[in-house]
Amino acid sequence: MPGYDLHSHSNRSDGTLPPAEVMVLASQRELAGVALTDHDTFDGLEEAAATADELGLDFVPGIEFSAEYDGASLHILGYWVDPHDPAIEASCSDSRPPVSDAAR
Fold it and tell me: Residue 83: which of 95, 92, 71 has the closest Cα?
């Protein structure tokens, strides 16, 4: 029975493949669906969703929020989160490290 991967990352955070290629890999592994849950960013969701649709994969838009509690680093997965919610956008920009001039 085909399964789901509900915790995948693209090169928009700490993965190695672009969002579209993550979807292609999921299809090659005969998964029924996949969630893209990059760290503190929604940047790859549109690309991933379009490719998943082309490949016939169920797509779950997601994110992995970085947080800290009592000195411990936490990662919280969120699914079907509204990427345009102002509070979430602010939280993501607060959590992401600044981009260096060399990386621009």
Answer: 92
Q: What is the pLDDT of residues 48-79, one digit of tens each?
A: 999 999 999 999 999 999 888 999 999 999 99
List strands edge to edge, sheet with 72-79. 4-8, 33-36, 58-69, 72-79
Report domain extents, the chain: 4-103
The percentage of residues in the chain with a pLDDT greater than 90, rounded to a whole number, is 71
For the domain covering 4-103, report its CATH number.
3.20.20.140
What pTM was computed for the model? 0.82
Residue pair 25/10 in contact by the 8 Å Cβ criterion: no
CB atoms near residue 95 (< 10 Å): 14
CA distance 5 to 68: 25
Residue 57: phi, psi to the nearest 5?
-90, 145
